[in-house]
Structures are given as C-alpha cells and as structure tokens.
UniProtKB/TrEMBL annotation:
UniProt cofactor note: Binds 1 potassium ion per subunit.
YjeF N-terminal domain sequence ranges: 9-217
Gene3D superfamilies per the UniProt record, alphabetical: 3.40.1190.20, YjeF N-terminal domain
Residues given in the record as (6S)-NADPHX binding sites: 59-63, 131-137, 142, 160, 261, 332, 384, 451
Span of domain YjeF C-terminal: 226-510
Amino-acid positions noted as binding AMP in the UniProt annotation, renumbered to this chain: 421-425, 450
Gene transcribed to yield this protein: nnrD
Protein name: Bifunctional NAD(P)H-hydrate repair enzyme
TM stretches of this protein: none
EC code: 4.2.1.136, 5.1.99.6
UniProt keyword list: ATP-binding, Isomerase, Lyase, Metal-binding, Multifunctional enzyme, NAD, NADP, Nucleotide-binding, Potassium
Catalytic activity: (6S)-NADHX + ADP = AMP + phosphate + NADH + H(+); (6R)-NADPHX = (6S)-NADPHX; (6S)-NADPHX + ADP = AMP + phosphate + NADPH + H(+); (6R)-NADHX = (6S)-NADHX
Pfam family, one: Carb_kinase
Functional note: Catalyzes the epimerization of the S- and R-forms of NAD(P)HX, a damaged form of NAD(P)H that is a result of enzymatic or heat-dependent hydration. This is a prerequisite for the S-specific NAD(P)H-hydrate dehydratase to allow the repair of both epimers of NAD(P)HX.
Length: 523
C-alpha cells in the first residue's frame, strides 16, 4: 500500500481538480460519504442514533458537513459544532455548509464550552477539526476542543487523520484526538501509519474517493508493507529446487556468553528457506554450537582456546566465504578490539551480499566510511535506534524524532540498504526509496529478535532476492511470524525462538491464497 505525506496529498488534490477536471466538491462528497458509510457499518442506521460532528473551518470540516447531511438522510440526528464563524468557512466546505438544514449547525468560535452534555449523549463523535492542512502546534479553542472530545467517553471516528497529528510524520502537534476508527482518503498518509499517530487513529480504512489513477500512481510516496505487498515480493520456489539452488548462507557470529545469537541467526536463516547454512564461530565455542544447532554446519575458526574472533581469522573466514550466496556478520560477536579490527577487514574484503547487525554494527560505527569501500557490492545494515545513533554520531531521541530521515540519510550517504528497527521498522535504499513495515507487535521487544531478523534477511539475499526486496520482505515476515504467535499465545512471554519457529507458518500463510476479502483495512 502506498503512503504519502499530507503535502503530497494536497498537491494530488490540486492536480485532480486542476488537470483532470474533477470538481473539489465531488471529492469532498465522496470523502464524506465514505465516512458516513463507515459509521453506518459500525453503528447501524435509523432513529435514536446521534453523531455529533465537531468541525473546523477548513475542508476537513467540510467533510464533516457532508457526513452530517448523509447521516441525517439515514435517520440519524447529526448536529454540527463548528469552531468558527460561518463566514470563515470558504470554498467547497462553504458549499456543503450551505446545504445543511438550518438549526443543524452551532457556530462556536469561542470553543466547545457548554457543549459537553450534548457530546456525551452522542452515539459517535466525528472528528472533523483538522486534517492534512494542520500547519502548527494545536492550541487555543482547537486544543481545548480536542481535550473535550478525548474526555467525552464516546467512540470517536476521525476524518482523514486524528486532529492534531502531523500527516507527514505521525507526530502529535501539541495534542491530538484519540479515535476508534479513522477513514482516510485516496491514500493513507504517513501520519496514519507511523507512531504515535497510528495508535491514536485506531482502525484505519482507506477509502476510494475517485482520485484519478494517474494522480495516485504518479504521487511520490513510500510503500507500507502489508500482506499484499509481501505477497507481491515472494517468488514461487521451483518444484525441482535442491539445497544448492536455495542459497548457501554463511553466518559469522558468536563470542563467550552469546552463543544463542549465533544459533538463532543460523537457525532463522534455515527457517526462512535457506538451502544451506554454515556457521563460523570462534573455535572454543564450536562444541556448544554443534549441540545447539542441527541442520547448520559449524566451522570452528582460530585457536581452540579462543572464545572470540581474532584479527588473524581474516584469511580463514575469506576462504569459507568463497562461493557463499550471502554472509551475515555480527550477531553476538562482542566488542573485543581484535574482533572490531576483523570486522573492518571483512567489510572491505568480502564480496558476497553482506548483512551486518549487532556488534558488527558497533564495529562499523567506529569507521562508517569503510562502507564506501564496498561500492559495487551489496551491503545491508539492520540497526536498532541505539545502533543507528552510534552509526550517525547523534542521540537516540534525534533518531526517534525523524526515523525516516535518518534511515534515508545514512543509506544514501553510504550507499547501503538499511533497516531501522523498532515499531514500524523503516527500510531505506541507497537511492532514497523508503518502505515502512506494518507487521509486528510489542511481544517482539525482547532479546534475540534482531538475530532472527538477520538470519531471515540473509536467507532471502542468499535466495537471490534484490536487497530492497529482501529487507522489505524480511522485516514483514519477521513481524508477521510474531503476529501469528501473538494470536495463539499473546505477546507477554514471547521469545525470539518462538518467532523463529513460526517463520515457516508465516511464509506458508503468505504464499497460500488467502480466504476472505483483502479489503483496504490494514489493522
Ligand atoms: N486532499 C484530498 O484529496 C481531499 C481532502 N479533503 C479534506 O480536506 C482536508 C484538508 O483540508 P484543508 O487543506 O482545508 O485543511 P484542514 O485540515 O481542514 O485544516 C486547515 C484549516 O485549519 C486551520 N489550522 C491549521 N493548523 C491549525 C492549528 N494548529 N490550530 C488551529 N487551526 C489550524 C487553518 O487555518 P489558517 O491557519 O490557514 O488560518 C485552516 O483553516 C483533508 O484532510 C480532508 O479531510 C476532502 O474533502 C476531499 C479530498
Ligand atoms: K480530523
């Protein structure tokens, strides 16, 4: 599913009207109608139902006027509380304000004070205060109105986006409405799918409002990874495939106390469909990993009494990497100076597509410019916000404040593919392309989940997926496996090996035709 910023949606609106001759008032009619349909579907129709529409003076309010008119025709009582003088309403919104029966609209430029009882008596409150036109922090009467709506205890349906959410980032601009359902128009906005906006919006429905297809197709946006997008990436496996044709991955991982990271990365690569996995570990750890893993082939590296990789392991590792389809570097490596040195040497010497995670990233953070020496070879980094902050030399809050910007900046600057992990992981390509992952749940906030993701992405690279496809499908599959686990056992107590073991089921669900309507509801 494509998602766009609020500004892009506003320019799409202008293009549809200016270049394609679609009247703005027709777009508004369809937008209001889609909201009214969603409300009817959720609450039914007929007498005894009351929708209180809290409207601003812009076109978001205009949609609210249409909703009032349509619900009234369906037997609802649908009063509009307009936070402006009627003369302040202009354009298409004014046309629809005119169409309302007298007595339906109460003009309240001073705010909602005194309207609390009416609002509390509603079946549903419709939030039509602010949409994509929000241009500053919300205060004054709009801010107070948001507080009243949030305190009323009645289900709220947000028009386009909860008022107060920045459509381009999902940030709360001062304060924002909390809705049960959001009906967004033409395409979802970034603020509908990124936290905290996505959580405040509740369930999201994206309604077709008759935006010309060319306008939709040509709008610059990014991909929101849902089941449909994942299905579009997965390739069928040949019925005559053999282990050699499904990719041979090399995992370089492990140090004392971190054998689990190595085992999970290797096992997850197998669970994500790798044909063969070789696991290179410091020699002293080999007996542990021999017994921890079954299908993966372990390769002891370096002196028998060493529990971490030494710089001198370069030659041995390059020779085992020869002919491998993908290499995963980093899980549980530790940060011993000789290991860091080894990672630097491997960065410039390894030819195979390379996934770098965890301590591998910590080593890269010391000298990120080494990534540029991999030019022409494929490199994919999977940092969490802490690792991203170290890579960029900024603070974690700075990363969290602009996750898309940070991921895009690093990926383009160092010509790598990058997955910035966290709720709604961001995938960035060296050309600046962005995807946002839609799967996953809070049960994944435990140790080892990153090792599983590394294995999954390495397996997909090894099977020949393009790195941007491997990263997008990898993060979706990883989160989707966790979602399947959560359906069965809930999110508390979920561990990384649960997700690892659910990977085949997730892959199967994505490759077998799904029953029921695909629909446009994403959560
Ligand atoms: N795009 C489409 O395809 C379609 C879009 N449609 C709908 O139009 C919506 C966009 O409408 P829009 O552009 O009129 O902006 P909107 O969100 O109503 O707000 C602007 C008003 O709010 C004000 N204002 C701004 N910030 C504020 C603040 N912090 N605190 C207080 N006030 C603030 C600002 O006032 P100003 O600052 O300019 O004086 C201005 O008056 C979109 O979300 C969708 O619902 C559909 O009808 C059909 C198809
Ligand atoms: K709104």
């Amino acid at each position: 599913m494509k998602v766009v910023t609020g500004q892009v949606m506003q320019s799409m609106d202008k293009r549809a009207i200016g270049e394609f001759g679609v009247p703005g008032v027709a777009l508004m009619e369809r937008a209001g109608c889609a909201c009214a349909d969603a409300i009817s579907k959720r609450f039914g129709d007929g007498a005894g139902r009351k929708a209180v529409i809290v409207a601003g003076k812009g076109n978001n309010g205009g949609d609210g006027f249409v909703i009032s008119r349509i619900l009234s025709q369906r037997g609802w009582e649908a009063p509009v509380l307009l936070l402006a003088a009627p003369q302040a309403v202009t354009g298409d919104a004014a046309v629809n304000l005119e169409r309302l029966d007298s007595g339906v609209v109460t003009s309240l430029p001073q705010g909602l004070a005194g309207q609390e009882e009416l609002i509390k008596s509603a079946t549903v409150v419709v939030d039509a205060l602010l949409g994509t036109g929000i241009n500053s922090e919300v205060g004054g009467v709009y801010g107070e109105a948001i507080d009243v709506v949030n305190a009323c205890g009645v289900p709220v349906v947000a028009v386009d986006i909860p008022s107060g959410i920045d459509a381009g980032s999902g940030r709360v601009l001062g304060r924002a409405v909390r809705a049960e359902l959001t009906v967004s128009f033409a395409l979802a906005k970034l603020g509908n799918v990124l936290y905290p906006g996505t959580e405040l919006g509740g369930r999201l429905v994206v309604a077709d409002i008759g935006m010309p297809q060319a306008v939709v197709d040509e709008a610059p946006g990014c991909e929101f990874m849902d089941r449909e997008s994942a299905r579009a990436i997965i390739r069928p496996r040949s019925v005559i495939a053999h282990k050699g044709s499904n990719g041979h991955c090399l995992v370089i991982a492990g140090s004392a106390g971190k054998t689990g990271a190595a085992a999970m990365a290797a096992q997850s690569a197998l669970r994500a469909g790798a044909g063969l996995v070789s696991l290179a570990v410091p020699a002293a750890l080999n007996p542990v990993l021999e017994s921890k893993t079954t299908e993966a082939m372990t390769i002891p590296i370096g002196p028998e009494d060493k529990w971490h990789f030494l710089a001198g392991a370069l030659g041995e590792l390059l020779s085992v990497a020869k002919g491998k389809d993908a290499v995963a570097l980093g899980p549980g490596l530790g940060t011993a100076p000789s290991t860091v040195y080894l990672v630097h040497s491997l960065l410039t010497a390894l030819d195979a597509p390379l996934v770098i995670d965890a301590d591998g990233l910590n080593a890269v953070a010391v000298a990120p410019e080494l990534l540029l020496r991999r030019r022409g070879r494929l490199t994919l980094l999977t940092p969490h916000p802490g690792e991203m902050a170290r890579l960029m030399g900024v603070s974690v809050p700075e990363v969290e404040a602009d996750r898309i910007g940070c991921a895009r900046d690093f990926a383009t600057r160092f010509q790598v593919y990058l997955v910035l992990k966290g709720a709604r992981s961001i995938v960035a390509g060296p050309d600046g392309a962005i995807a946002i992952n839609g799967s996953g749940n809070p049960g994944m906030a435990t140790g080892g989940m990153g090792d599983v993701l590394t294995g999954v992405i390495a397996a997909l690279l090894g099977q020949g997926y393009h790195p941007f496809a491997a990263a997008r499908l990898g993060v979706f599959l990883h989160g989707y496996a966790a979602d399947l686990m959560a359906e069965e056992t809930g999110t508390r107590g979920m561990v990384a090996t649960d997700v690892q073991e659910a990977l085949p089921r997730a892959l199967q669900r994505l490759t077998v035709a799904e029953g029921g309507a695909a629909g446009t509801s994403i959560n």
